[in-house]
Design brief:
elongated, alpha+beta
């Protein structure tokens, strides 16, 4: 299933120039400042970059694909509307089909199984990595704003300069690139949150919750199971939606927790931990295969 989800995205992306290209090109043709060489270079550069990332699964590739694929869907929609003179009702059937394909591509890259394969693509040796769900508080507002900065930051300056808007382009370049770097770094942090099965046990790697990866030795794990209602386990889910798993330990374990406003590292001693993987059933199956008690 992981391989299927990835190949669906790859197939949609490969044919995207044929399906969504005409709609995007129609919009660029109506923008003399960014038409021709500039528009084509940006469009083909994005397509080639995502194609390479899609063929080499890793956490970096996951960030690239999940940032740029939705950007292409937005750009295609913009192109179709501009080409129709700003009237949505005048968008032709070919452009509608292109927008639909670009949207389907953007949706497919968000599939949990695709994310899981890309995260596991960065594994070493006998490791098996499982992605953690995105924290709930960032889903509506913060992540969209950060994505906008990540996409618009590198593009605004060059496109304005191509349109001979020298002052605005220079300002956008100087301001946009640092903001884009910060935005990409923040979004990549979401791709670097995972649960890892290693020969010695389980590791929780979550830069948003802990300052250091937490190793849970197999000998200390009493049970791994879906979290019961009202549990008092230490919460590393960050408010993520979905089924949370709880790991119970035979003895307390010190954990270096992340506090955004803390002036020094803080340590919590925990006997139970909560986390929310994107594929909880597969996590439990993997634990059972590694002789970790599950229920």
């Amino acid at each position: 299933m992981r391989v299927t989800a990835t190949w669906v995205f790859r197939a949609l992306w490969v044919v995207l120039p044929l399906t969504a290209g005409p709609a995007l090109a129609g919009g660029l043709d109506d923008q003399p400042g960014i038409s021709g060489v500039t528009g084509e270079v940006v469009a083909w550069g994005v397509w080639a970059g995502v194609l390479v990332a899609a063929l080499v699964p890793s956490t970096v590739s996951l960030t690239v694909c999940r940032v740029l694929a939705p950007a292409v869907a937005v750009a295609t929609t913009w192109g179709a509307i501009v080409d129709a003179g700003g009237d949505v009702g005048d968008v032709d059937a070919l452009a509608v089909a292109g927008v639909a394909m670009a949207t389907a591509t953007a949706v497919s890259v968000m599939a949990p199984r695709l994310g899981d394969q890309f995260v596991d693509g960065s594994s070493y040796g006998p490791e098996r990595r499982f992605a953690l769900r995105v924290p709930g508080p960032v889903l509506f507002g913060p992540i969209e704003l950060t994505w906008l900065l990540a996409v618009a930051g590198p593009l605004a300056g060059p496109l304005l300069l191509a349109g001979e808007q020298w002052v605005a382009g220079g300002i956008a370049l100087v301001v946009g690139l640092p903001l884009a770097w910060f935005a990409w770094r923040s979004l990549h942090t979401l791709s670097r949150r995972w649960l890892v099965f290693v020969p010695g046990g389980v590791v929780v790697h979550d830069p948003l919750s802990v300052t250091e990866s937490v190793l849970l030795p197999r000998a200390r794990i009493a049970r791994l199971a879906p979290a019961p209602a009202g549990t008092d386990a230490y919460d590393l889910t960050r408010g993520a939606a979905g089924l949370a798993l709880q790991v119970d330990l035979h003895e307390p374990l010190p954990v270096s927790v992340y506090r955004p406003r803390a002036t020094a590292p803080e340590t919590a001693t925990v006997e139970r931990l909560l986390f929310t993987p994107t594929l909880p059933a597969e996590v439990l199956a993997a634990a059972a295969d590694r002789r970790i008690p599950v229920s």
